[in-house]
Amino acid sequence: MLFKTIQGLVEPTPFWAHRLEDGIFPVTISGVMQEDDGSTRNQGITTQEVTSAWEEYIEEFAHSETWRQLEETLSKATFPRRIDKIVGFGLGEMTSIEGPCGIPEEGRGRTCMQHALVLSLARLLEEKTGVKVMCHVQDPGYTSRCKEALAAKGIKVAEPETGFLAVDEATLVFSMNPNVPVRQIIADLARPAAMIWRPVKEEEKREWRRDSNGTWISPHSTDPDSPRLLEMVKGYTQLPFPQDWTYFGELAVYVRKGGNEK
Ligand SMILES: C[S@@+](CC[C@H](N)C(=O)[O-])C[C@H]1O[C@@H](n2cnc3c(N)ncnc32)[C@H](O)[C@@H]1O
Fold it and tell me: Which domain of life is it from (predicted)?
């Protein structure tokens, strides 16, 4: 499925403008021939290797300053509903050609740390409310080894694209640099109890431009802000996410207002 942002609909790629005659669709269903369904990519890496590399990051994250600060913020928050589900979007595959948990340079472990956050969040919410928290993640990039490692920790892979349908009022959404407009899609579908995603800001007006080679450069990210998003977050309290540029990036915590549950 291809999801268009509102910007992609009203300011299409200049060299595709003629295709407007074919109609304007926010979602396109298309057939893709894939050479690899995730079972052969990075085949040299076993599930056991992914699991043990990820275990190290789960430990590291649980003892990190990032988690200490986030735990403090969330422990004080009052949620509108008892959260019983976390849905993570675009957290990335946990194998790469370089080895389990990513490339051995700065940023190694980003995806494993982001999946570790899902587990720590679930544990914290369960301790806070006593309600079992189911974890789902959606990313078309998972290899079969990622899926096995995730399943072993009780995390369900939502495919294809069913993560969006799983989001309801008792859900916490966690989205990190997705290549798809997660925030705009959720704004059209649901009002989750909480979100951890890029802070919503007033849009800056920017134009398509060409670089020195004549290639068109989009003025928008793959998960841009929009007026509907701005409207949506008026119903939420924004709390800070700790600064952690190595494993996360610019994020904010949103908790739906009107809460009286824990
Ligand atoms: C830029 S990477 C971010 C990876 C990781 N979160 C990070 O911060 O390094 C974008 C991710 O979005 C994923 N993605 C693409 N389409 C998606 C979709 N429909 N649903 C969820 N994730 C998607 C890609 O597979 C990729 O892992």
Answer: Eukaryota
